[in-house]
Amino acid sequence: MGMPQLTRNQSLVLGALSHSEGPMSAYTILDKLRDQGVRAPLQVYRALDKLLEYGLVHRLESINAFVACTCPHEHEHDHGVTAFTICEGCGQVTEFHDEAIEQRLAVLVRGQSFKTEKTTIEIRGHCKSCG
Amino acid sequence: MGMPQLTRNQSLVLGALSHSEGPMSAYTILDKLRDQGVRAPLQVYRALDKLLEYGLVHRLESINAFVACTCPHEHEHDHGVTAFTICEGCGQVTEFHDEAIEQRLAVLVRGQSFKTEKTTIEIRGHCKSCG
DNA sequence: ATCAATTGCGTTATGCTATAACGTGTGCGA
DNA sequence: TCGCACACGTTATAGCATAACGCAATTGAT
């Protein structure tokens, strides 16, 4: 369950996401990588699955898109919940972590005897520049 | 921006959701309502759009599905953030609200000079029964 | 009363997102 | 060297959502 060398497709996908200003859909990634020999959606989705598993990429559930993690090193020792602000003007995504929210959620969920596997926190709106 | 009488399609869709154990996709709702004359996805999606606007229904972004709001009366005076636990075993969805989380998020977002329009908090895992 | 604007309806067609199912190739340990 | 695990590539299909058209009913200002 470590993080092996990335394969060619995984590197291409991570590269595309890292060099992008904002989040991209799997099909947008596909388009960007056609010149480099990526032809089918599955090639992208399979790479994304691994990158998600390694914590190098996040999926934004509310917009069906993906972003490169902004602090991949920290994810090696699995920081808990990741939250995002997503600007609907310029697409800028900001990732953040907060202990207080995490603990409060843990308390609430515990009260339901619910066992958390994946937590999604996404805030859509407009960033400073987009007013 | 009030809440007028529901139209036939809106009532049918809300009824289907209310009588369901768990969340349903738009296409599942469509299937349940074919006998009652609903034939096309758009009829369902248009009804859902209005029901979401009125606060009678929530969209679960992480699973592309919809649930009836469990406290529609409270939404008349727009309670802020709604959070959900979603059991991947039995599909049970529990809606909850928490002032502390809401305020903490407000602070963090303010720090970015970000203006929130819609907040999504969804926790997937397993409920008490599904261990 | 009438016309215009608004809103919902119904239909067809289409687009976007994601996965199923199949077979190939490659590396590596028993 | 056999068998397993894993990544790859391709075709096909499933699942989610909206565009664009025209019709009908309602409302409301003139």
Automatic annotation (TrEMBL), chains A, B:
Presence of the UniProt keyword ATP-binding in the record: no
Keywords carried by this UniProt record: DNA-binding, Repressor, Transcription, Transcription regulation, Zinc
Listed InterPro entries: FUR, Fur_C, WH-like_DNA-bd_sf, WH_DNA-bd_sf
Family matches, as Pfam families: FUR
Cross-referenced SUPFAM superfamilies: Winged helix' DNA-binding domain
Family per record: Belongs to the Fur family.
PANTHER family according to UniProt: ZINC UPTAKE REGULATION PROTEIN
Protein name as it appears in the record: Fur family zinc uptake transcriptional regulator
